[in-house]
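Database export, one record per block. Field names are fixed; values are copied verbatim from the stored entry.
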Amino acid sequence: MRPIALGLVLVSCLGACGAVAAGRSQPVPSPDKTAFDDIQPLRKGRVVILDGTTLWFPDRGERFHLDGLWTCAWPQWALDWSTEEKSLTPAPVPCGALAKSWLKRAVRQAIVVCQPIFRVGPADLSGRCSVDHRDLGLEMLRVGWARLATQSDPDPGYVQAELDARSARYGLWRIQVLDMVDQRTKSRDRGADLPISRRKCMLERRGQAVAAHDACGARTR
């Protein structure tokens, strides 16, 4: 019985992946948000980690986003093409779970302090958070499990942390993130449909999923 992971791996052949592993960071649309007119009181307390950039303050019933950052959603997967020497298929990587785990590790059971900057929705805020004076957004960028969501006036420290992580190929910068819609609707095992020659062609063009798909043959339905 083929492992479930193979089905996720071969989704890449459909050409619906975000090529995060190579090139510079591209702007990612941020959710609609409204800036506060005045300085908001700090949110302090223990939190529950929802994903790699989102925290929940249970005592206040508020969700808080690390502003200006993007990472994989919790159920999202990616492909690691660095395994090409050992296999004809890249290794599946649970990038959402890994990003969440790293933020959880950074927070542990400590008190989190957040400064609201934007309102995203009812009981839904966005801003900067820290633990023991350590910026959590900076930490996630430093290890590569988050990247800048926009390129409009980013914090210089954030920009440098992302550049360093990208140069070292940490976290998101060494994998190819699968599109969530395609992951839900088309993640089935297509290994039997693909000839060995086409799989080798895909590997040679790893990191450029759409270009690889176009060059390596028609889409298999």
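Remark 1: The two ends are 22 Å apart (CA to CA).
Remark 2: Residues 1-29, 186-194, 207-214 have pLDDT under 50 and may be disordered.
End of record.
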